[in-house]
């Protein structure tokens, strides 16, 4: 049960932790060229902070479960 709460807290804090700066880096190249001899990726790879393992409806259920657990713990 502790793992579920920690997972839910991690998921809730994920967007806040991965937000980063909205300003583009000046030293960063606009388009990176693939390494020589490597085929192009069949799909665009998202940065880790934009990847979400769970669909929104599952995240909503997990948030509701976390609120219910906190309410039961506090006795309200």
Automatic annotation (TrEMBL):
Note down the stretches annotated as region Disordered.
15-44
Q: Where is the signal peptide?
A: 1-18
Provide the protein name: Uncharacterized protein
Q: What is the lineage of its organism?
A: Bacteria, Pseudomonadati, Pseudomonadota, Alphaproteobacteria, Rhodobacterales
Q: Per UniProt, which keywords does this protein have?
A: Signal
Q: Which organism is it from?
A: Limimaricola cinnabarinus LL-001
